[in-house]
Amino acid sequence: MLMPSPASTAFEAANTDRAKLAFLYEHPQWFANVFAELERRKFPFDRIFIPDHFYDVGREQLPFKVLFNRMSPSANSREHGSGIFHTLAYLEHLALQGVRVINGAKAFRYEISKAGQSSLLKSLGLRFMPSRVIHSPTQAVAAAEGLRYPLIVKANTGGSGKGIVRFNSKAEVAAAAAAGLLDLGNDSVALVQEFVPARGGFITRVETVGFKYLYAIKVHLSGETFDLCPADICQTSAGQALENACAVEATKAGLKVEGYDAPQAVIQDIERIVQAAGIDVGGIEYMVDDRDGQIYYYDINALSNFVADAPRVIGFNPVENLADYLEQEVRRAG
Question: What is the value of pTM for the model shown?
Answer without folding.
Answer: 0.87
